[in-house]
């Protein structure tokens, strides 16, 4: 795994679709992964790392959509269309592949990526994360052709740090909601 990514491309995935101030670093290096907070999706935490062959992997909570998102990107995927759905298979180690439709996305309208969303409901996201941390690699395929094969060394520690980050963000958001002025006039429900 290439731990030091090309600065500009890595910055695109770190910053998301908005300004750099919308992304805050939580921990800079957890076994080669960065852990950060994306303010544009309700203070959701994510991990990110760069790999050989210009591949990048970002894994995140999306509190707005109530899902986790597996995002794989490459500067080489120039024909990938923003907003188009692509059939993908994500296989961790020797486990059965997760199959689904990933959405094409261009980070800051530049970096081509695939976003596979796994709902939190019915423990799907929990199972996905367990497989992510329990194996040493992931293979991503599109229509039967392998497009990425990545070593996931350090992913278990990175995910643990991401979970700590998300717990802290959830607690902070809850504290903000509960610290509202109790003396402010209440809106008329009618």
Could you characterize the architecture of this molecule?
- By secondary structure, this protein is an alpha+beta fold.
- It is built from three helices and ten strands.
- A ten-stranded antiparallel sheet has the order 1-2-3-4-5-8-7-6-9-10.
- Helix 2 (124-134) packs antiparallel against helix 3 (155-178).
- The chain is globular, with a radius of gyration of 18 Å.
- Residues 1-10 have low confidence and may be disordered.
Question: Summarize this, please?
Answer:
The chain is of the alpha+beta class and 190 residues long. The protein is 23% helix and 41% strand.
Features:
single chain; 190 residues; 10-stranded antiparallel β-sheet; 23% helix
Supply the number of helical segments: 3
Mean pLDDT: 86
Q: Round the Cα radius of gyration to an integer and report it.
A: 18 Å
> Order of SSEs, N→C?
HEEEEEEEEHEEH
Tell me the strand order in the biggest sheet: 1-2-3-4-5-8-7-6-9-10
Give the fraction of residues assigned to helices: 10-25%
Largest sheet: 10 strands, antiparallel
| Helix and strand composition category | alpha+beta
Quaternary state of this entry equals single chain
The tally of beta strands, per DSSP, is 10
Please state roughly what percent of the residues sit in beta strands, choosing from under 5%, 5-15%, 15-25%, 25-35%, 35-45% or over 45%. Answer: 35-45%
Distance between the termini: 59 Å
The poorly predicted ranges are 1-10
**Shape estimate:** globular
């Amino acid at each position: 795994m290439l731990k030091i990514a090309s600065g500009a491309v890595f910055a695109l995935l770190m910053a998301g679709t908005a300004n750099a101030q919308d992304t805050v670093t939580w921990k800079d290096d957890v076994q080669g992964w960065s852990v950060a907070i994306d303010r544009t999706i309700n203070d959701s935490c994510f991990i990110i790392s760069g790999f050989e062959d210009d591949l990048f992997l970002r894994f995140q909570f999306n509190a707005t959509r109530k899902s986790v998102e597996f995002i794989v990107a490459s500067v080489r995927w120039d024909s990938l269309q923003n907003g188009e759905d692509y059939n993908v298979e994500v296989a961790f180690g020797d486990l059965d592949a997760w199959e689904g439709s990933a959405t094409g996305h261009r980070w800051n309208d530049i970096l081509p990526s695939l976003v596979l969303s796994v709902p939190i409901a019915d423990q799907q996201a929990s199972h996905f994360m367990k497989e992510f941390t329990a194996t040493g690699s992931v293979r991503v395929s599109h229509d039967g052709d392998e497009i990425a094969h990545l070593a996931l060394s350090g992913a278990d520690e990175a995910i643990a740090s991401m979970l700590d980050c998300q717990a802290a963000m959830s607690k902070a958001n809850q504290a903000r909601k509960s610290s509202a002025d109790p003396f402010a006039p209440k809106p008329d429900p009618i």
